[in-house]
Each structure stands twice: as structure tokens, then as C-alpha cells.
Design brief:
There is one protein chain. The protein has 296 residues and is of the alpha/beta class. It is built from 12 helices and 10 strands. The strands form 2 sheets. It has an 8-stranded parallel barrel with strand order 1-2-3-4-5-8-9-10, surrounded by 6 helices. A two-stranded antiparallel sheet has the order 6-7. Helix 3 packs parallel to helix 5. The chain is globular. The chain starts with 9 loop residues before the first helix and ends with a helix. The structure holds the ligand O=c1ccn([C@@H]2O[C@H](COP(=O)(O)O)[C@@H](O)[C@H]2O)c(=O)[nH]1. One of its GO terms (biological process) is 'de novo' UMP biosynthetic process.
């Protein structure tokens, strides 16, 4: 694929969107019980009506929309067509689109997964969630594509599900798995660093480039708002933190402040707790506004 580029990198576009609209990300998770609650059938027609309603209500309001790919894939190619239209519609209305697909594989396959970050892709998105389970180096093709196209990645580090620590807090030498992930992403946000290089020395500078602003990098991590304590060191990350787990999974705005304080570039993301307010567009907007205010 040949590729024209976003002239402004994802990290800067995200910082600009947050400045204009606040940091809230709303997830599109059209699971069957939710469609039923909205009075919609669990089929492609229901999926489209749900998705159009959420995009219509929120794409002009929130900084980021995060469609969960699984809920579209389960409806086959027609479900993916709904997702393609939603991504285009959301971006046209000014929201950044983070595709939550948690991709991760060996290099050649990762390269293909990363094509969704190219502007000429039928579902071109601004950023993608990726899984580091095959090793940080396996994600390099996605990093290269993101750099080339001015898009972003969020890497699973300390996820919001209750049993995540069983793997993510396991020790690799002196660090946890999650810390290796965070440190790798810190490297990606450092110009010139490649996997295998010594980690950049942040010299004790907290949040070097991690606050919103011109220095926000395009590579972020996922750290759940459900953690009892922040057991990874995010200092000097240089990029944003996507924080899921709010609302239905039990995380609260107070948890977010306890874990991350106020000085980091955190994107809190809420799906079910906002979507449950639909299908009325005003009610959806009000639910998102309530979260935005509580998180403010
Ligand atoms: O650690 C993670 C990473 C991603 N998710 C995704 O978020 C939504 C669930 O959001 P709710 O606000 O709880 O409805 C879903 O798409 C997950 O795959 C996560 O929950 N935790």
C-alpha cells in the first residue's frame, strides 16, 4: 500500500482533541443484551441502528470513540461494513477513532494488522490497541507504520480485568512484564530508540512529555482504572495512558485520581455505563457529559 500521511502526529492530535473536548473516550460495545435493551435486534440491522445513533450523538462531542472490533466481527462482513461507515462518520465529525482490536502477532502478520493505520485503508483509524504477548519486538511493524502515517498505538500493559496480574505482574528479571511493556513504549516515544537499546535515561524527570501538550507522544499504554494500586512506573512514559474499567467494571473517578493523579495524559474510557443511557441521543450525550464532569 502507498501512503499519504497525517501531517500532525497522533499524540499531538490527541492533545488537541483533549484540549477542545476533554479527555473522555466512549467505547462502542454493541453486545447482544445492550441491543435488546435499546429495543434492537441482535443482527446487522440492529448493529447499524445502534452504531449510527452513537456516532450521531457523540462523535461531535467527545475526543475519542473506541469501537470494539469483536462486536462488529461477530456479524461477519456486513458487521465490518457497519464499522467502516462508523469510523468514517466519527472522524468526519471530529472524533479520533481508536480501534480496540488488541492485535499482536509475528512481524509479517503484525505488518498486515497495522495497515488499518494507513489512510488509504477502507477502515483507516487514528490509533489501534495492540497486545505485546509475542514480545515487544513483534510490534515493531506497527510502530513503523504508526510513525509513517502519524497514527498511534495503545499497548496492553496492566489491563482492567481481575486476573490480569497473574501474567502482567510476573517478574522478568527485576521488572514485571507490565513494566517491560511500559519501558518499551517509553522507548518508542524517544526519538532514535530501537528495541534492544538501553532504555532512555529520564533522569528522574517525572512525566517527561507525558502531560498533554506539544510533547505528548503517539505511543500509549493501557492501564486499568480498577487496579488496587499503580504497580507500574509510568514516569517518563512520554505518551498517553488509556484507562478502561470505569463504571460497569467498578472503577470510579476517585480511583482514576488515586492511581494517576492529575499530571498525566490519561484518557479515561467508558463504554457500557454511557451506552446504557441510549437510544435517546440527548440521554447519551447527558451520560457522557456526566462522566466528563465527574472525571474533570
Ligand atoms: O484493560 C482493558 C482493555 C480494554 N477493555 C475494553 O473496554 C471495553 C469495556 O468497557 P466498559 O466501560 O467496561 O463497558 C471492552 O471493549 C473491553 O474489551 C477493557 O475493559 N479493559
Amino acid at each position: 500500500m502507498s501512503t499519504p500521511f497525517e501531517t500532525v502526529p497522533f499524540g499531538q492530535r490527541l492533545a488537541d482533541a483533549v484540549a477542545a473536548r476533554g479527555p473522555l473516550c466512549v467505547g462502542l460495545d454493541p453486545h447482544a443484551p445492550l441491543l435488546e435493551r435499546w429495543g434492537l435486534p441482535d443482527d446487522v440491522d440492529g448493529l447499524r441502528r445502534f452504531t449510527d445513533a452513537v456516532v450521531e450523538a457523540l462523535a461531535g462531542e467527545v475526543a475519542v470513540l473506541k469501537p470494539q472490533s469483536a462486536f462488529y466481527e461477530r456479524h461477519g462482513s456486513r458487521g465490518l461494513a457497519v464499522l467502516e461507515d462508523a469510523v468514517a462518520g466519527a472522524r468526519a465529525a471530529g472524533a479520533l477513532v481508536l480501534l480496540d482490536a488488541k492485535r499482536g502477532d509475528i512481524g509479517s502478520t503484525m505488518d498486515a494488522y497495522a495497515d488499518v493505520l494507513r489512510p488509504e485503508h477502507p477502515m483507516a483509524v487514528d490509533a489501534l490497541t495492540v497486545s505485546p504477548y509475542l514480545g515487544p519486538g513483534a510490534l515493531q511493524p506497527a510502530v513503523d507504520t504508526a510513525r509513517l502515517t502519524g497514527s498511534g498505538l495503545f499497548v496492553l500493559a496492566r489491563t482492567s480485568n481481575p486476573d490480569a496480574a497473574a501474567l502482567q505482574s510476573a517478574a522478568v528479571g527485576e521488572r514485571s512484564v507490565a513494566q517491560v511493556v511500559v519501558d518499551t513504549v517509553r522507548g518508542w516515544n524517544t526519538p532514535g530508540w530501537v528495541v534492544g537499546d538501553p532504555l532512555p535515561d529520564v533522569g528522574g524527570v517525572q512525566d517527561l512529555g507525558s502531560r498533554w501538550g506539544a510533547t505528548t507522544g503517539s505511543f500509549g499504554v493501557v492501564v486499568g482504572a480498577t487496579l488496587r494500586e499503580l504497580d507500574v512506573d509510568l514516569d517518563g512514559l512520554g505518551g498517553p495512558v488509556l484507562a478502561p474499567g470505569l463504571g460497569t467494571q467498578g472503577g470510579t473517578p476517585a480511583d482514576l485520581r488515586r492511581l494517576f493523579g492529575t499530571g498525566r495524559a490519561v484518557v479515561p474510557t467508558v463504554s457500557r455505563d454511557v451506552l446504557a443511557a441510549g437510544p435517546d441521543p440527548a440521554a447519551l450525550r447527558a451520560a457522557a457529559a456526566r462522566w466528563a464532569e465527574a472525571l474533570g
